[in-house]
């Protein structure tokens, strides 16, 4: 019976600290477990890619060995953005691929995002990989699998440029935060006719300038400064593996992804009236009315890229988005989350205007907070913490309490949310309201609930 750190098997990916919870041996065993699942589904070939993290090459070598020893062929696409790995999986391997990435986690983290036969592995499927490892449920192929290589970027680029058409050339800033998107963003956007100022687009797994996480306003300050001091019109920023998009106006206003989704939904619905639009539980309460107003059907879903993809398939949705910056297009694309491509779609929309920032600033807006994190005590299970808090939680004046992912409490003039992160040991809070007074009142109610657990500390 093999042993492996159980806590690296998360809700929608595998992620851990390199050399501690995520070792080379763990990567090898995970490769064997994925291969056994693939073989059971009749899958013979898996695409394999990695982001720019320093631990990527070794982990790639070991998970690849797990595949080939089990009789699975590997298509090694090298260092790519996560959406490029998904693209390779769909185009070359029947929808099967594994991306080695730590996304926006600190430099000493890494992990795996996995899809087999077009389905993203999540939840129970990831726990089944753990069970396969702990019970030595592996397979041996009749012959060892082969390894071949391919540069997928030219095909990815050609596919995008073939259908994304800007109405006019644009001047943009692209900030990759030294993540892997930097290797491709400049070439991609120039191919669309943009003049691109690149910030931190040299790939460096130490992330020496700022962390590649556009969900945090502090990581967008370089884009904001560049826009103010240049003639660029709009700013794009990417996370460490290129599947999330940050967006900044000329004046330095951050357009959070739930408001980005308003524009994407309006665009898609103009061609597909009645289509479903999926968004996660963290999104603005102004989104659902906007979708209805533009002829669509809003669907709220739990947070997590794999949950969103699953819901898109179930609902036949054409576009979806998460507050964290993952945006998914099924219309004209493949349905996976792709920050680079979302940037292309955004520029296509904005290029129809002489003043892109005015278009973005005109989107409906409430007073809101970014994500607020509460660190959990060592060894705590965030979902259990939320369950315990929910048993005694009381919210005066609540119009609705939504429990699809934590507690989202709707009031007449705003909402509050607390949920457990699926990737890090924190509780995530978010608040939105019509006025500062309302947001303060809602926060005070959540503060009372949080502080009913003496181990938790209110962060504001």
From TrEMBL:
It holds the Pfam family PGM_PMM_II. Residues 7-138, 156-252, 257-364 form the Alpha-D-phosphohexomutase alpha/beta/alpha domain. Residues 371-447 form the Alpha-D-phosphohexomutase C-terminal domain. One of its GO terms (molecular function) is magnesium ion binding. This is Phosphomannomutase/phosphoglucomutase. InterPro entries: A-D-PHexomutase_a/b/a-I (IPR005844), A-D-PHexomutase_a/b/a-I/II/III (IPR016055), A-D-PHexomutase_a/b/a-II (IPR005845), A-D-PHexomutase_a/b/a-III (IPR005846), A-D-PHexomutase_C (IPR005843), A-D-PHexomutase_C_sf (IPR036900), A-D-PHexomutase_CS (IPR016066), Alpha-D-phosphohexomutase_SF (IPR005841). Its cofactor is Mg(2+). It comes from the Bacteria. The keyword Ligase does not apply. It comes from Neisseria dentiae. Gene3D superfamilies: Alpha-D-Glucose-1,6-Bisphosphate, subunit A, domain 3 (3.40.120.10), Alpha-D-phosphohexomutase, C-terminal domain (3.30.310.50). GO terms for biological process: carbohydrate metabolic process. Keywords: Isomerase, Magnesium, Metal-binding, Phosphoprotein. Belongs to the phosphohexose mutase family. The lineage of its organism: Bacteria, Pseudomonadati, Pseudomonadota, Betaproteobacteria, Neisseriales.
């Amino acid at each position: 019976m093999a042993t492996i750190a159980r806590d690296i098997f998360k809700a929608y990916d595998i992620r851990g600290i390199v050399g501690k919870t995520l070792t080379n041996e763990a990567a090898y065993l995970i490769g064997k477990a994925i291969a056994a699942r693939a073989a059971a589904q009749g899958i013979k070939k898996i695409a394999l890619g990695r982001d720019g993290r320093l631990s990527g090459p070794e982990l790639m070598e070991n998970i690849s060995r797990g595949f080939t020893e089990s009789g699975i062929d590997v298509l090694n696409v090298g260092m790519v953005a996560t959406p490029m790995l998904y693209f390779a999986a769909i185009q070359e391997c029947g929808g099967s691929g594994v991306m080695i990435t730590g996304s926006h986690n600190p430099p000493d983290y890494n992990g795996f995002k996995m899809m087999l036969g077009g389905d993203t592995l999540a939840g129970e499927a990831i726990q089944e990989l753990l069970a396969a490892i702990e019970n030595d449920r592996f397979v041996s192929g009749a012959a060892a699998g082969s390894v071949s290589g391919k540069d997928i970027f030219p095909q990815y680029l050609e596919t995008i440029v073939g259908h994304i058409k800007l109405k006019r050339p644009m001047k943009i800033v692209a900030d990759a935060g030294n993540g892997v998107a930097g290797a491709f963003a400049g070439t991609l956007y120039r191919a669309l006719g943009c003049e691109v100022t690149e910030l931190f687009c040299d790939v460096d797994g130490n992330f020496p300038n700022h962390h590649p996480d556009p969900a945090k306003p502090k990581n967008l300050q370089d884009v904001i400064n560049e826009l103010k001091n240049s003639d660029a019109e709009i700013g794009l920023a990417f996370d460490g593996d290129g599947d999330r998009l940050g967006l900044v106006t000329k004046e330095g206003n951050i357009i959070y992804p739930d408001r980005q989704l308003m524009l994407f939904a309006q665009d898609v619905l103009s061609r597909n009236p009645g289509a479903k639009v999926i968004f996660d539980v963290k999104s603005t309460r102004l989104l659902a009315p906007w979708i209805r107003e533009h002829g669509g059907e809003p669907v709220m879903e739990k947070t997590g890229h794999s949950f969103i993809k699953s819901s898109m398939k179930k609902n036949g949705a054409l576009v979806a988005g998460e507050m964290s910056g993952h945006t998914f297009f099924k219309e004209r694309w493949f349905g996976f989350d792709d920050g680079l491509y979302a940037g292309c779609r955004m520029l296509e929309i904005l290029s129809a205007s002489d003043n892109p920032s005015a278009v973005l600033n005109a989107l409906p807006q409430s007073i809101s907070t970014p994500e607020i994190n509460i660190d959990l005590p060592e060894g705590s299970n965030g979902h259990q913490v939320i369950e315990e808090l929910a048993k005694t939680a009381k919210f005066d004046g609540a119009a609705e309490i939504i429990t699809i992912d934590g507690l989202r409490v709707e009031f007449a003039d705003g909402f509050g949310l607390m949920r457990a992160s699926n990737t890090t040991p924190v509780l995530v809070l978010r608040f939105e309201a019509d006025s500062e007074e309302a947001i303060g009142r809602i926060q005070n109610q959540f503060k009372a609930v949080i502080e009913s657990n003496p181990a938790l500390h209110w962060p504001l």
